[in-house]
Fold this protein.
Amino acid sequence: MRIIIPLLRDAWRLARPYFASEEKYRAWLLLAAVVGLTLGLVGMDVVLSFWNRAFYDALQAKDARAFMDLLLTWQIADGWLLPGFIWVAGAYVLVAVYVRYLTQMLVIGWRAWMTQRFVAAWMADQVYYRLGLTAAARTGADNPDQRIAEDVRDFVDRSLSLSLDLMSNVVSLSSFVAILWSLSGPLSLWGVTVPGYMVWAALLYAALGSVLIHFVGKPLAGLRFRQQKVEADFRFAMMRLRENAEGIALYAGEADERKGLRARFAALIGNWWDIMRRAKLINALAGAYGQAAVVFPILVAAPRFFAGEIALGGLTQTAGAFGQVQGSMSWFVNSYAGLAEWRAIVDRLAGFERAMKAASVQKGLSETYAADGNFALQGATLGLPDGRKLADAADLVLQRGQSVVVTGRSGSGKSTLFRALAGIWPFASGIIARPEASSLFLPQRAYLPLGSLRRALTYPDDAAVHSDAALVDVLEKTGLGGLVLQLDAEDEWSQRLSGGEQQRLAIARALLQRPEWLFLDEATASLDPESEAMLYALLKRELPGTTIVSIAHRPAVAAFHDRHLVMQDQSVSET
């Protein structure tokens, strides 16, 4: 119970929002239809139980007319109107098809809504950025792409299939236990009369199987959880290799990369072998359990058949009813592997959701409106995820129209200062006053989205906002005129363009967007000094109303700025 209750609570917390969302009417209607049709299948199983009895009785009596009626038309037997097999089978197939079809409709709608919800939470308040900053967050949010793309899909599919299967088994149990009770009769054992003894036999059989399967399969949930992680880790390592192919090739780091991939794949295979060995034991037990269940009810009911108390049809109906009751009671046994995998999925999604909520409450600096149009830090403390301080109770004012260059040794906190000014750094306290003015922050490594060069150039604006003439103009001015004819070409531009070309493209973005504040975090460091000076001169000329704040190491960059700040000894000082 210590495991089941938190698991069900997490599963309900994940599932409930969809059925209370704007799509709730469609969701509940589809669920009701699926449940109704599933119950219809159980009802047809009950009808087939009595049909089966009448059919075998007709065979035993060599009654050809009853035999044909039960196949093609209908017959009344023991007060029951039994339709012909072709009608029951046809209805069964039709209902089964629509159960599957409507279930898939519900899965698609639920998955789409849940995926959008997780993506929205992941993207809100820079949660996607903050999740990777601390080890505590990463333990609950490793491989978020897999959790959103695969775990959401599997959660929806498994939750529906397991819950519908459980409901079907409960209804089937309640339906067939009465039939089995009436068919089995009493049994005298050691002077004690046991009524409905076949029901008790089914209960004991299922209980024994459930205890054994749980004892053998208990470690499987943890192994499934780990398998999802190591699979994602291996896939992520290969993706990283592809994204950094040039750097690896220049370092001739193939041997080390192979070693790393082998280690990750070895962890994957090792865990998979553990799953296989555990699954082998479960399958062996479940197989023996299922095979024994085929003959067990006949062996138990055979004495009454040989004594003439029941006919062949009664024997087959008794065996069939026992199978239904035993199968329903054995739901835990038959579904153990699926339940273990479902538990791992719920744990991963619930952990991811908790990690996102924890990341979203890390607000960093308190923001206020700067009526004077300047950026200002008041009593700001900037730190690192490990608790080290980079600036303590710092005050800083960046005046509109006054360009500033920030220098300092590596690790002194220059980039962290920019992240705090951008409002994305959570490990900070104090106040930041921000003006109502457009701003653009360019990191050292330019981000190029997937798609066309046009999209990469205009990002994050809609490409339609800027004319072709404007795009051609900024490409030529930033030294990228050779790309003019490839504006609509789709490629992995982050792989195709050099580091310097990517930085030129980022400067071209700034020329297009014309922000009132432009922050450059070594955004020209990959260029040669002459090209860097050319681009700064270009920015000064094309954006005369833009306040430029730069992080730079080269002394020549300072010539394009009015003010020089130095970060050192947990403070920001002016030279």
The first strand starts at residue 74 and ends at 77.
